[in-house]
Each structure stands twice: as C-alpha cells, then as structure tokens.
Specification:
35% of the residues lie in helices and 22% in strands. The protein is an alpha/beta fold. It has a 9-stranded mixed sheet with strand order 8-9-7-10-11-12-13-14-15, with helices on both faces. Strands 1-3-4-5-6-2 form a 6-stranded mixed sheet. A hairpin with a 2-residue loop joins strand 14 and strand 15. Helix 4 runs parallel beside helix 6 and helix 5 crosses helix 12. The radius of gyration is 25 Å and the shape is globular. The mean pLDDT is 94.
Length: 483
C-alpha cells in the first residue's frame, strides 16, 4: 500500500531521527530531500516514495530494495541493504532499524503531531468495524473525517492510516485489533486518542490469550494512550468492563441498554423491517425515535457508541441523527440482498460465538416480520483454541433454540454444530453438512435444493472460511436458471 503524505513531507534525516535508526548515505544522496509518499510495496515505489521494507513469514521486503531503487525510490526504511543495491551506483539513503514495523509506528507517532484533528480509537471483541463505520457516519455529518480502511487495524495498518490524514481532516476514527497483550497499548500510544472506546469482551483470541479476563486486559490497553483530558467509553452491560469502573483512577463514560448506570442509555428499542428505532437518555434528557438503518440489538450498541462520540465531539442531536441515517455497513458485514427471490444476509467477514448469536437473532427477527422461513449457513469460528468444540456445540444448540428451520453447517467443525442442533430439536433432514471448505459449489447446490423463493438465508463464518464464495456460486446458479 502506498500513501501520499499530505500533512507534511519527510526527509531521510528526519526519519532517522524519529525512528532512532542509523542513516546510511550512498553515492552522494541528499538526506534532506523531501519525500512525498510512503509505501510497503516495492511495486508502488518511485521518486519521492519512501519504501519501508517489511520482513514477513514468507517474504522479506529488504530483498526488494534493488527493484524499488530501480523504480526511482531513493529513501528506504530497512533492516539491511542488499549488496545489489549498494553496487548499483544510484544515490539513495537507507535508515537501518532493528524492527521496521516499530519504526513505522515511531514515525507515525511523530507525524500525528502535525494535525489538530480529534482522534477516536475503537476496539472490542465484536463489532469494532461496524462501530467505526457508525462513528464515521456520525462525525461526517459535521466534520471532514478520516478512518481506518478495510482491515488496516493492526500495528502496520494503523501507521499507514495516520500517514493518510489530510490537512483539513477534523476527526480521525481508528480501529484497533490485536492478537496478543501489548499490541493495543503500542497502537494507542502512537495514536494518542482523544476518545477511546471498548465495545465488548468476547471469546475471540481465547486460543492466544487463554481467558476472557486476559482479553479484557488487552482491550483496556486502549486507554494507555489517552491524554489527561481524554475520555474512555465502555459498555456497561459487559460485566468485565463495568467491573473496571471502580478500579480505574479516572472514571470512564458508560453506555448501556440494561445497566441504569449508563451515561448514554438506549431504551424502548423497536425493530423495523429495515432497521431499529430507540429512545436515548443522556445528560438528564431524552432523545426520542433515534433511527438506525441496521438490524439487531448489537447494532443498538454500535450506534449508541457513535451517538456518545458525537456528543463528545460537540455535535447537536440533529446532526448526530443525520449522520446515523447515512450509515453503510462495511463489505461482507450484514449486507442484505435478493438472489432469485431468496433474501441473503451476507455476514461473511468474520465470526465469533457472540457475533454468530447476534446474526441468528437478526435472521429470526427478519423472518418473523416477513413471514419467511429462516435458514442459516454457519461456518467454522476460528481462534477459539481448546474451547472450539464446546462453542461450536453451543452454536448448534442456539440455532435450534431460535428455531432456524434449515441449517447448513460448513467447515471442519460442521459435524459438531449439526449434531448439537439435531439433539436440540432441528429435524435431521433439515440439517446439511459439508466438511470441505474447498467445495463452495457443492454447498451452494445443497442450499438451492433445500430452500427457495421467499426464504431468508444467513451466511456467516470466520473470514478464512471464505463463505462468500458460496454466495457467488448461488448467484451464478440463479443467473443460469433465469436464462
């Protein structure tokens, strides 16, 4: 990815200073030359583009310095300079660092100081991307707003997002994901957010962190980059988060549906065919009929967080309402469309036990309102470690309990989900199993033989399962039938 540096151009000497790297100058290069972009892809290199060489598990970016040099780049953040580049005779500067990703973070922390925009940081086990999109929609109603794109929510993606800030941006919304303790602390200290929020604590990353308490610790690291006047917003309906209220020296703001201690509390929630309406209590006043163009109780929390952030940014209730109405979900997150008369809820981006249950709730609610038959394709949930079998068993039970009528189980744990669903009451002839995720067409054919026009199909699985391929196969089959 290549990002134009619109806030401030950078020089090799400046980069060396801020990353504490060793500046090496070859063939009379100018260490004060201003660089106008930064990239982690040598194919996007050119004159004025800083190439940051990332060493991955399979590919070592340092090996691509000669090709970036040939393309016109003359400034590199790297761990070493290949002999081929040294012998090229071309003038260039290399900033030698021990860890290029850490160096990118150090440089982004410096670059962040050249904007007066308000920074909002979002993390949580479930819903952080959707919450980020809600906050972006709200903030955009009053301010030029910049946000994390796609899955750039890690220790490399966050610096690239910060490098993409423009001079007239007034609000920056950053999503922070993690796989281990310490990662969110690192990102928070780079971003120094004015507002930080934790959506919830779930079971994702149990494989690496062991317990939900450790997940909570990791998520709460987001507060460690807050300035003295910064604001922490927590979900008071999550006991692990609410229990932190008394232990934290600076009291956070709370949002809730059930907990009466919430500073921002949604009440009188009503489901509509195309969204949610609720009333909001905050600052000793009530705001009635807040409309949200998304389904499910989980989106009450997501939009409630965005409303709270809007208030903290000084926005009016009317402006926040306008912003909420413009919300558009990210790709493969609860996209709803019609394929040959079948309504498909495309929620393929990721899955955890919590988000699976929330998606099933949406399916059942929508089916009830449309008098339709609910069907669900549920794929594997990853990163659950020793809890994986138990949580797939519980998923099958929940699908049966909520009266999913046709259940399609997909992936290595499909038989666990299916067996649990059948034991809990779904008829065996309404449960279909495909263990091989390399066969999306086979699963699509199974689905099309079992459901038809008027039915509603939820498709949800962890990202690595690539359940969206099944939807593409369904679309192709339906198109052929029309012809």
């Amino acid at each position: 990815m290549s990002v134009d540096l619109k806030l401030k151009k950078l020089t090799a000497a400046e980069i060396s200073r801020e990353t504490h790297g060793e500046l090496q100058i070859y063939n009379g290069a100018d260490s004060e030359k201003q660089q106008s972009a930064i990239s982690t892809d040598s194919r996007e290199s050119g004159d004025g583009v800083i190439f940051c060489a990332i060493k991955g598990q399979k590919v070592d970016g340092n090996d691509f310095i000669p090709s970036a040099l040939e393309a016109g780049a003359d400034c590199f953040i790297c761990q070493y300079v290949p002999e081929e580049a040294k012998k090229s005779g071309k003038p260039f500067c290399a900033i030698i660092v021990e860890d290029t990703i850490k160096a990118m973070g150090d440089l982004a922390a410096y670059y962040r100081g050249f904007t007066s925009a308000k920074f909002v940081a979002v993390t949580g086990s479930v819903g952080k991307t959707t919450t980020k999109e809600f906050i972006y929609a709200v903030a955009s109603a009053s301010f030029k707003t910049h946000k994390t794109q796609g899955n750039y929510n890690n220790e490399l993606g966050l610096p690239l997002t910060i490098f993409g800030i423009e001079p007239d941006d007034k609000v920056v919304v950053l999503e922070m994901g993690m796989s281990a303790l310490g990662e969110i602390e690192h990102m928070s200290k780079i971003a120094r957010p004015d507002i930080a929020l934790v959506t919830n604590i779930g079971t994702s990353h149990l494989a690496s962190l062991g317990t939900r308490e450790n997940i909570c610790r990791a998520k709460l690291e987001i507060r460690l980059g807050l300035p003295e006047d910064g604001i922490l917003l927590l979900n008071a309906d999550e006991p692990l988060l609410f229990n932190q209220y008394e232990t934290l020296e600076k009291k956070p703001k709370l949002m809730s549906i059930y907990n009466r201690c919430g500073d921002f509390r949604a009440v009188n929630i009503r489901q509509k065919l195309d969204g949610i309406v609720y009333d909001l209590i905050y600052s000793n006043k009530a705001v009635t009929n807040v409309e949200v163009p998304a389904l499910g109780k989980h989106n009450v929390y997501n939009s409630l967080a965005a409303y709270a952030v809007g208030v903290m940014l000084g926005m009016t209730d009317d402006a926040i309402r306008r912003g909420l109405k413009t919300f558009v979900s990210a790709d493969m997150r609860q996209k709803i469309y019609d394929v040959g008369g079948i309504t498909i809820i495309d929620d393929c981006y990721n899955a955890s036990p919590e988000s699976m249950r929330a998606a099933i709730d949406v399916l059942i609610s929508m089916a009830a309102k449309r008098h339709a038959r609910p069907a669900a394709l549920l794929g594997d949930m990853l990163e659950l470690g020793e809890y994986s079998r138990l949580m797939h068993d519980q998923l099958g039970q929940y699908a049966a309990q909520m009266q999913v009528q046709k259940l399609f189980c997909y992936g290595m744990m499909a038989d666990i989900v299916a067996e649990a669903a059948i034991k809990k009451g779904i008829r065996a002839d309404n449960v279909f199993v495909c263990l091989d995720t390399r066969d999306p067409q086979g699963m699509a054919d199974m689905i099309l033989q079992a459901i038809g026009p008027g039915d509603i199909l939820l498709v949800k699985a962890s990202r690595a399962v690539q359940a969206e391929k099944i939807i593409e196969c369904i679309k192709k089959r339906k198109i052929r039938k029309k012809r």
